[in-house]
Amino acid sequence: MPNTAMDYSKICFVIMPFGLKKVGDKDVDFDVIYSDIFLPAIAAVDLPEGGKLEPRRTDQDFFTALITQDMFEYLEYSRFALADISGLNFNVAYELGVRHRAREAGTAIFRQGNSAPPFDIASIKAFPYEYAPATEAQKSRALITQVLTESLKRNRIDSPVRQALDEQRQSPPVNDLLTQAENEIRAYNVTGAMEIYRQVVAADPNNPLPRMKLGLLCRDNDIWDEALEQFTAAAAASPTYSEAWREKGVAENKVAQIAKQPPLDSDPAPGETSIREAIRLNPKGFDALASLGGVLRRAGRRVPALAAYEEAMKVSGGHPYPLLNALKLRAQVNGRLALSESDELALARAARVREAQLKQQPPFDRPWCYFDLAEIRLYQGDAAAFLKIAKDGFADLDTVNWQRKTFIDTLRGLLPVESGLPGFKTGFEELEKKLPPE
Q1: Over the stretch 225-240, which tens digit does the pLDDT of each residue have?
Q2: 359: CB partners within 8 A, 6+ apart
């Protein structure tokens, strides 16, 4: 039974490291972050029914009790939970898993900008924050207050555990098939996993989750027609599933590129309507905003494409994908590559993210961790590193080629400004030769 003296309906439990911990190559005092960032940001949140949200952290409770008992009660009953995954602390990961199993809504994840999210929660939005300098700390407090306020109003499911359990409700044979598919993926037997997911889709055609898994595997293996079929069905089965709409739009655009119809510069462009629906469902989804930028760029609408990339960069806290696309498109629009001091700082932060992801085994978000880091090195004046890292990314892809072609096509936009990038043209031509003939 919960502590009856505690009004959990007003509490935000903070899941975070205690004391001084390593985050990358920095020592971070998380006690100071709690008192200076999280505590005031949470205390400023208005509850929908009136009153304020109250921050809690177990080591800050000054009453006699078992700390583990308090922790489990907070995880089980608190109105909201804020998790800081910076540094990938084991205790934080454990508590976040307990929270996701306990509550279907009311959890938000934050991270310091240079920490890569682990694979298991990579699909969940993790809001980046900074604690220094003072101007960044103030922005972080405002962001946290906004995220918690909006989340309390909308009360949407944010637990992947509860979503999977609630939406699947599978019969034992289907559960067995899903387990088999995951095991095949771990064994790097992608073809076997796809065949099993096809069996699951046939057995439960109205479940969007296995369709999304199958669609993503098809997408990553250049089977675009089937990917589009699965994403379209997933969006139809779950019309509020923003990610399904985004993937559907990306696939629609890719199929049009391959078939060369309808024209990519039509209005709306292929996939544009689906991606805009994804943005409508989740205005803070930077992936959808960045995907819209790509669709508009291929349609020749450079100015709105740049606006989409820059909005994606803003809501993501400087994620490498929209950042690099914004820099390339800005150079095309302005006719020159001119990096500001803030651009250089953003590139340095993005480099730390991709470096950390490359060190994981296997590398996280491959091949884009290679390609983004290669491009960052180019902007930082290291053409040799650009070429080496890009080649490493090509080698890590085995037989799948669409990612290579996408990388080359986006770099092609830098050719008009190559004079400002020593060594780029030579490296680009060498990489271009590695593409198979169409």
Answers
A1: 999 999 999 999 989 8
A2: none
